[in-house]
User: Fold this.
Amino acid sequence: PKMELPEGILLGFGNPLLDITYQLEDNLLLEKYGLDANAAIIADEKHDALFDELMNMENVSYSAGGACQNSMRIFQWIVQTPFRAAFVGAVGKDKLGDRIAKRARADGLLVLYQLKEELPTGSCAVLIQDQNRSLVANLGAASLFTDDWMDDEDNACAMDRAQYFYFTGFFVAVCSPLVLRVSQKCCESNQVMILNFSAVFVLQTQRETLEEILKNVDIVICNKDEAIAFADSHEWKTKNIFEIGPRIQSLPKGNIRPRLVMITDAVCPVLCFKENDRVLEYPVPKVDKSKWDKDKVFDTNGCGDAFVGGFLAMYVQRMPLDYCIRAGIFASQQVLNIVGVQIEQLPQFSG
Assistant:
């Protein structure tokens, strides 16, 4: 039997974006715009033309995106009862913003957007090639999020109601004052704070802020590259995940709840670092691209987001840790078959 979850038990903060996905045949587009095959960056002027180019291409698909919003929608897909999760971020006052909000609500997600007139709703170019995905985010309105969001009465209610708070590193880069305020609130209460490092650039640019926030973080989620980037920014002089994991786990903590650190990787097992140097490993099923059905999409974008959504869906129901992680792995495997994170294309979830 499922636990009866209260409305808005989980509050996610991120950048709501429209995903513009294109399957690459070759490296030309990546080379033209100087993009890595597998990275996430923030767009600058030189990428404007990339967005124009994609908009004019034939087989481009559009889906509601933004890493955190994707995770929240997967969470809802599993939990099934609508509006158990709410999502916070900034969109423009435009058709695109309406479209993303509609899609999120159709997927059972409550949205608490901050509306901005100065910039249009953000978008993200997603360039897929084999097991790689290159993300270029044009944040637009999402970059303008301000922490006075918390002062609104409805939003303050949502914050009191939530028992779990999830932040992407992408959002920390946009509005760290809010993340810090919420993390302190979590630290002093029994609300749980979950942080995803999200991308290497976040660790390189947000070092001091992250140091402050991490004292209040109960669960850290990152991939291997991000874990190594964290170690580099702290001059730990090691690239060994089995050294980095326990060190992040044992960084100073503002309360007595032990921190949990999860490090994911497309091909390696999910690693879980717990207190007293305990490490758990969860194998990820091998995906053999050569045996992949040619008519099926193979899109790794959103797999990490889906892992988080699956994990949290079980975690807020107070399931055992290995159950949570298996649900995360299951969700990420499901998302491989669809472009981006289009919940309406997933089979109905049955635990």
Q: What stands out?
A: The longest strand covers residues 122-129. The CA atoms of residues 138 and 188 lie 35 Å apart. The first helix runs from residue 28 to 32. The mean pLDDT is 89.
